[in-house]
Amino acid sequence: PTTLEDPSTHLAVILCSSGTTGLSKGVSYSHSFCIANLPSLWLMAPTDCLLAFSSLYWLSGFASLIIGTIAQATRVITREPFTTQLAIDIMENHRVTIAFFSPYQSNLLVHEPQLATVNLPALRLLLCGGARVSKQLYASLRSCLPSHTLIQIGYGMSESCLISLTDGESYKDDCVGTLQARAAARIVDDQTGQRGLPPGEPGEILLRVMIPFSGYYGNEAATTDIMGSDGWIRTGDIGYFDMDGNLYVIDRKKDIIKYAGNQISPTELEAIIKQLPGVLECCVVGLPDEGTDLPAALIIRTPGMTGDAVTAEQVQQFVDEQVSNYKRLRGGVYFIGEMPLTPSGKIIRRKCVELVHKILKAEQQSHP
């Protein structure tokens, strides 16, 4: 085989960034990055069977390939897109021991009645990451899955790889666990990016790994924008550490809705809306309006009579009763059949904003 003089500078692979806030960028990994950061993300054995619907050009899909190959484990590969029925069938028929699902996919699974009745004795670990895992989602997963199945929530990004992981046995709101051995993180003032913040005080999360990624392919400006010369990566996420070293992720900095001088967390509103019977999934976005943003909710109803009965007025009243006045859904409530998703199962908020504008335009045309 060819000997690489310097594996830290030799390009090994180019993956795609998540693309939730804009077009995906090419995330370049060197051989050294792959060797240092990928094999230890989670433990696998030759007896394991892994299922992940992620494409190979996303971190979760590529990590599954590398870890599964090194561990000499079995990977279930399908060209079919994710559906709850397909996921359940594969887990049952192939005795899957480790499964990776995004929170969106996990939410669809727990609303699938068959999951509560299917026998999954081999499933020892469910990995979930890419977005917030709410208390309700965790409780639903816990009630549907075998008691011996660990549920681990991970946090990271394509540019840093997986940074933290929960212990799989407990849950805390917004907690993504403790840092991996090869990673470092700090919380800084999200306005200046300079002042380090103490435990319990939210700010922007900065990450650094032992061997950094090689930058965005053909995009030096974007690389400089996200990573300093010291290797610290600006995640754009708002979070904090507790006194025990657990990391908490509150929201994306770019997703924060600014209304009348106040800051609103969309995930906070989404967690409330999902508690309403008949709501399967939702996404809260800010609609521009005369120098401010109005919180608006896009909702997928659950199939059946309960979902059909949910109205926009009911959702707004449900939220109004639980939040401060400035957090109310002044941008409205809109119902859709499916969410715009990345191939890795993340909701694309900018596409959701476009959907709301299309709905509003159609309403204006039908009622001139």
From TrEMBL:
Domain AMP-binding enzyme C-terminal residue range list: 268-346
Molecular function in Gene Ontology: long-chain fatty acid-CoA ligase activity
Primary location group: other
Localization annotation: Peroxisome
Keyword tRNA-binding carried by entry: no
Keyword Transmembrane in record: no
AMP-dependent synthetase/ligase domain location: 7-217
GO annotations of cellular component type: peroxisome
InterPro entries named in the record: AMP-bd_C, AMP-bd_C_sf, AMP-binding_CS, AMP-dep_synth/lig_dom, ANL_N_sf
Protein keywords: Peroxisome
GO BP terms in the entry: fatty-acyl-CoA biosynthetic process
Family classification: Belongs to the ATP-dependent AMP-binding enzyme family.
Name of the protein in question: AMP-dependent synthetase/ligase domain-containing protein
Species assigned in the record: Anopheles maculatus
